[in-house]
TrEMBL record:
Domain Phospholipase/carboxylesterase/thioesterase span(s) in chain numbering: 17-211
Family: Belongs to the AB hydrolase superfamily. AB hydrolase 2 family.
An annotated Gene Ontology molecular function: hydrolase activity
InterPro entries: AB_hydrolase_fold, LYPA1-2/EST-like, PLipase/COase/thioEstase
Organism, scientific name: Teichococcus aestuarii
Coiled coil: none
Stated name of the protein: Phospholipase
Top-level taxon: Bacteria
């Protein structure tokens, strides 16, 4: 399967990046869906490079868009198998993009929406070189029962979810919050009233602050 790639933006400040932010889109979208977040968040982290890869598979649910894994069978075992199959491609992307940017893999933030959030959590928590942070919007924690044995790092995590999400219920992020705290992962959670399956201004602001803190932990100039 071909290596992941997609649109990129920044750094706003010019020059070499000090932070790499990977934006992982949801089911049926593609990398163009989230790259528009880059100019907004670049106000907070002007030395960040944003990359929004297209997921590896054509979307089974329509003529356009991509998917990280199939949703034809949404039982836990097929979802876990799908995330496990997609993870090596995301791991390869992280390593390749960090090397190209001249950054350690610990200077990468994984941000995902919906199915992309599932991949960000699944992959980020299992990497020996833990990312600088994980931002999971409208997602869920796949393979929760395996996490105590498979967790390799405890990066800071931001969970954001709309309270009236009818696609991925907010209860999914509440369950993830509990499981992550039980695993010793530092978690910040924001549940947005009246928000359905999307990202609102409160979520964007929380993401900007999270990215600022991640950059600050990396040291001066990040």
């Amino acid at each position: 399967m071909a290596a992941l790639d997609g649109p990129r933006w920044g750094p706003k400040a010019g020059g070499a990046p000090k932070l790499l932010v990977l934006l992982l889109h949801g089911y049926g979208a593609d990398g163009n869906d989230l790259i528009d977040l880059a100019p907004h968040w670049a106000q907070a982290v002007p030395e960040a490079l944003f990359v929004s890869p297209h997921a590896p598979q054509p979307c089974e649910g329509g003529p356009y868009g991509r998917q990280w894994f199939s949703l034809a069978d949404r039982r836990p075992a097929p979802l876990l198998a799908g995330a496990q199959a997609a993870r090596p491609l995301l791991d390869e992307l992280i390593a390749r993009e960090a090397a190209a940017a001249g950054l350690p893999e610990s200077a990468v933030v994984l941000m995902g929406f919906s199915q992309g959030a599932m991949m960000a959590l699944f992959t980020g928590l299992r990497r020996k070189a833990a990312p600088a942070g994980i931002m999971a919007y409208s997602g869920r924690l796949i393979g929760e029962e395996l996490l105590p044995d498979e967790i390799a790092g405890r990066p800071e995590v931001l969970l954001v979810h709309g309270e009236v999400d009818e696609v991925v219920p907010a209860a999914s992020s509440r369950a993830a919050e509990s499981a992550l705290k039980a695993a010793g992962v530092p978690v910040e959670a924001l549940y947005c009233p009246r928000l359905a399956h999307g990202i609102d201004d409160a979520g964007l602001s929380a993401g900007a602050l999270f990215l600022q803190r991640a950059a600050a932990r990396l040291g001066p100039g990040a």
